[in-house]
Amino acid sequence: MKKLINHTPSSANQVLLGLLPFAILLIAYMIGSDARLAINPSDKLLPSFGQMGEAMYRLAFEPSRRTGELVFWQDTLSSLMRLFAGVGIAAIFGLCIGVLTGALPILFASFAPLLTVISLIPPLAILPILFIVIGLGEASKITLIAIGVAPFIARDIQRRTQEIPSEQLVKAQTLGASTPQILIRVLLPQVMPKLIDAIRLSLGAGWLFLIAAEAISSTDGLGYRIFLVRRYMSMDVILPYVAWITLLAFLIDYLLSAINSRLYPWNAEGKS
Amino acid sequence: MSQPFIEARNIGKQYGQDIILENVTTTVEEGEFITLVGASGCGKSTFLKMILGTEQPSSGELLLNGEPMPNEPGPDRGIVFQQYSVFPHMTVLENVVAAKGFQKASLTGYLFGNEKRQARQEAAEMLTQVGLSHALNRYPHELSGGMKQRLAIAQAVICKPRILLLDEPFGALDPGIRADMHRLILDLWRTHKLTIFMVTHDLKEGFYLGTRLWVFDKLRHDPHAPNAYGASITYDLPVDATQDSLYQEIDDQLRPTKSTTMTADLTERPT
């Protein structure tokens, strides 16, 4: 009998074992839902999959009576635009600040303490400030995501830049490279895959800030919808929306990781 | 030529209380191939870094053509480190083309059109010289240790430095590959008329390569304060004239302070 620590499932078994918990959860939900609906057919807490399907069909394929929009797709589009804009702005800021402070000791000395302090501010605590200063429109939601995510990306990129062996910087100088040349040719390309990794890690926080901002002030969006229908206890909408957000998050993460290995094949094997 | 190419005048180096080097005085003419040997921490790498420009002497003067040595790395002094010498995000060819691009005083050092074609051709020729013509489009992580060092050497030599610094460049390579690398470096030294400084742990390598051997060691030693005295050049030998008995003597002298791995390295006798 092999020790447990040496038991490695075959790749087929690995997939099956991975799917098993999902199946168990689904079955448990169905049993619970059926049990509750059998007692009270108008129970709202654990809707059946049929009820969820109906609710989602209404939101996805029947134009809203109030605005004439397909609510589900409009929500998805608005939320993704906000998320991409916010995280995109954060990535550009984070990359510039991270590479510059990581590469140039003078900038590191002047800005690293400030960056540390800024990254410790809880972004949601300044949401009211953003609403007061920028107003309740799109800009404040995008700004919240950007402010929430940028310090993390900047500090991560700063660390990654500093991790690049100093031998490479010396070598580049002995080949005649100037400071801008070293920044653009040696450091920037090497932190690009790290930037994508940092974005992947910060997307979770991005979603959090997005949904929080939408819950507080919005007229559409995935987060807005969930908090709106909560008033009617519409679990038949909330549950599919949560599943949809999870799926979107998974797809974005998968896409970014695929882009990373496609664009930067040299990154796979670590440092040389 | 009255003025020496490189001149060290009574150089000393200390970090806080620890004295690394003291009283290093020597001159080097253009075209010499100097190997630096000595125990770990005896200051041979520190001396190399002073020529490179990443370290400055605490006392004394280091002169290049009569002028103080620049205090940062520059294109007249090429370097090959033991590792991390090549850019992992560029292919072999790109690594060498980038070296050509860095010579241009532009913001990014990217080359275009004719210039780029010419640089690529020159780079390909250089890579053929070091035996990498079959691996132009591979990334460094796909290369063996020896191939990476060949690439690093090609990169350094294509910039036509007057001085080439080698900091234990073959320390991590197999003995067979090391012999190939020795041939390569001697060949490049002759064709490009370089002045080479090479730090090595391997005394045999020091005796075989180059024209001149420097042994770094402490002249005085205080067992209660091992860092109270710095090392200096204790032997400065023309390589051709050395005898087996002298090799033995230097070997014995260096050995007590060496770590076990290096002792193992030195037990091989020269043939």
Automatic annotation (TrEMBL), chain A:
The keyword Transmembrane helix applies. The chain crosses the membrane at residues 12-32, 83-108, 114-136, 237-256. It is a multi-pass membrane protein. Residues 76-260 form the ABC transmembrane type-1 domain. One of its GO terms (cellular component) is plasma membrane. The keyword Membrane applies. It is found in: Cell membrane. InterPro entries: MetI-like (IPR000515), MetI-like_sf (IPR035906). It comes from the Bacteria. One of its GO terms (biological process) is transmembrane transport. Keywords: Cell membrane, Membrane, Transmembrane, Transmembrane helix, Transport. Belongs to the binding-protein-dependent transport system permease family. This is ABC-type nitrate/sulfonate/bicarbonate transport system, permease component. It comes from Marinomonas fungiae.
UniProtKB/TrEMBL annotation, chain B:
CDD domains: ABC_NrtD_SsuB_transporters. PROSITE patterns: ABC_TRANSPORTER_1, ABC_TRANSPORTER_2. Keywords: ATP-binding, Nucleotide-binding, Transport. The lineage of its organism: Bacteria, Pseudomonadati, Pseudomonadota, Gammaproteobacteria, Oceanospirillales. It comes from the Bacteria. This is ABC-type nitrate/sulfonate/bicarbonate transport system, ATPase component. PANTHER family: ALIPHATIC SULFONATES IMPORT ATP-BINDING PROTEIN SSUB, TAURINE IMPORT ATP-BINDING PROTEIN-RELATED. Belongs to the ABC transporter superfamily.
